[in-house]
Amino acid sequence: TKAKEVAVGLDSRKNSKILIEQLIKGINDQGANVVQVGVISTPGFFYYMMKGKYESGIMVTPSHDPKEYAGFKLYRGSQNGPSPISFDSGGREVKLLMEEGEFPKASKKGKKSKENLTHEYVKYLESYSEKTAKNKEDYKLLKFVVDCQNGSGTLEAQAIKNTFSGTKIINNSANGSFPAKVPDPLMPEAR
To answer: What is the pTM of this model?
Structure first.
């Protein structure tokens, strides 16, 4: 995309932590700056991209694939928020670049920085939850059980708990080895 600034986030998997350092190095070597937003869920990453108005973003995650997998979700920034890059909307070109393996050297390397909008993101989620309730007294009586499956969605779960006091959160520590269950909600053993 020839972006000058790229947001980068990752899930809690061990593979992601290894990949992100090399990804950042490669982006910096190409002359683009990287803003690392840390361990976050994909919806949280969307929030960062919208607030930061980044030209591009890469989420290091294989999503709901097994823990030993690794992957990237690529996004273009736009005025309407991030837009996923699919095979037909730029992914083919990325694949060709990777296969060729020829990357021109930038005259100046990019820089790496970190941004933390965690508190702001949790407040946004809390306000969104409150807006959906018809009667503000009734929503305080609702009770939920949220299973984070030791994934990266712990911020969202905490926002629900902050809004709905009757919420119980289980498996809420991000752990890339997923000790509680597999990270695929379509698998019966994950339900």
So the answer is: 0.81
